[in-house]
Design a protein that fits this description.
Blueprint (H helix, E strand, L loop, with lengths): L10 E7 L1 H4 L6 H13 L2 E7 L4 H8 L4 E4 L6 H8 L4 E5 L3 E2 L2 H11 L4 E8 L4 H16 L8 E5 L17 H7 L4 E11 L4 H13 L5 H20 L2 H23 L9 H4 L1 H21 L22
Parallel strand pairs: 1-2, 1-4, 2-3, 6-8
Antiparallel strand pairs: 4-7, 5-8, 6-7
């Protein structure tokens, strides 16, 4: 049931659906609709921006729990959300994010004082491939406290009037684009929002796309490109012990960073997630070659140039 009046609404909750990003084996439309109904009952206006291939089916089910808006890709999710929302406070989330009432209340309270608030996300449940993603999140937290392309954030619609030239069309990091145009972006270090893990087949399909984003930060891409060739070179030039020592040092450093990143987040990341950090490093060092091969074949779409700065002065790591 939706709130009856605009005065009852604490914020507008917006989800963008597109075929590449959600139409996978793991997406359960009815479960998603049930979740959106709880968001609506909690006092939020709920809007679904739909550019998928199943618009009619989605409208039939989601119109009971949300305002269903058809859009065409590529889309600037920030400006589009601002144009259809009735509230000044807007929360944008991916389809696999699951807020509870307390999370939404805290985020809305933070938006009273800040222009853009970025929440931290965590995976629950956590299968082994989710553990690899959790290891990646912790390594990134160990280097930079800001989320690495968080799955959800909130902003005040009124700030867009002062952002000249703002355009996040097709961006994988709209918060980064907001920051580059002068918006005040803060991270909520104690606000953790649950995100459902993908199915294994979906996770594997995403590896080259996620690795392709590393090309926007040349130093990071070069680091992952060099890991495996360096281990092979050390094995030939020296002996097996040198290569094993090199690999062990990289693995140990990743675990240390993950343990550091877990500080303050232990309630959401089990200790075993730190042990997945070396697996993530290995996975990404393989996936960058996979992404390069797809780029050469022309099957990976390059990201907008604005993303190349990756939050301007932030340290780039993680996904």
């Amino acid at each position: 049931m939706r709130p009856n009046t605009k005065q009852d609404r604490r914020c507008t909750y917006v989800v963008a659906l597109s075929s590449p990003s959600y139409a996978t084996d793991s997406f359960d439309l009815r479960s998603f609709a049930e979740y959106l109904s709880t968001v609506g009952v909690s006092g939020c206006e709920v809007i679904v921006l739909d550019s998928s291939d199943e618009i009619d089916e989605h409208r039939r089910i989601l119109r009971w729990v949300a305002r269903h808006v058809v859009v065409h890709e590529p889309v600037d999710v920030v400006r589009t959300a601002a144009s259809v929302a009735s509230c000044d406070k807007i929360v944008i989330a991916t389809a696999n994010v699951r807020y509870n009432v307390a999370d939404l209340t805290e985020l809305c309270a933070l938006l009273d004082a800040h222009e853009v608030v970025e929440a931290q996300d965590y995976l629950e449940p956590m299968p082994w491939w989710g553990g690899i993603d959790a290891g990646r999140m912790l390594v990134h937290r160990g280097i930079d406290p800001h989320p690495d392309r968080s799955a959800t954030f909130g902003f005040r619609r009124s700030i867009l009037r002062g952002l000249r030239g703002f355009d996040a069309t097709g961006s994988t990091d709209p918060v980064g684009v907001l920051a580059l145009h002068g918006a005040e972006v803060v991270t909520a270090p104690e606000l953790f929002v649950r995100r459902c893990p993908p199915q294994l087949r979906e996770w594997i399909r995403e590896r080259p796309r996620e690795a392709d984003l590393d090309f926007n930060v040349p130093a990071k891409a070069a680091f992952f490109f060099a890991l495996i060739p360096m281990a092979i070179l050390l094995a030939f030039v020296g002996d097996g012990r040198v290569a094993i020592g090199y690999s062990g040092a990289v693995a140990f450093a990743s675990v240390v960073l993950a343990v550091r990143g877990r500080i303050g987040a232990g309630a959401f990341f089990p200790l075993r997630a730190c042990l997945f950090a070396p697996l993530w490093v290995f996975e990404r060092s393989v996936s960058v070659y996979w992404a390069l091969l797809q780029r050469m074949r022309g099957t990976v779409v390059e990201q907008p140039a604005a993303i190349a700065t990756q939050r301007s002065t932030r340290v780039a790591s993680g996904e």
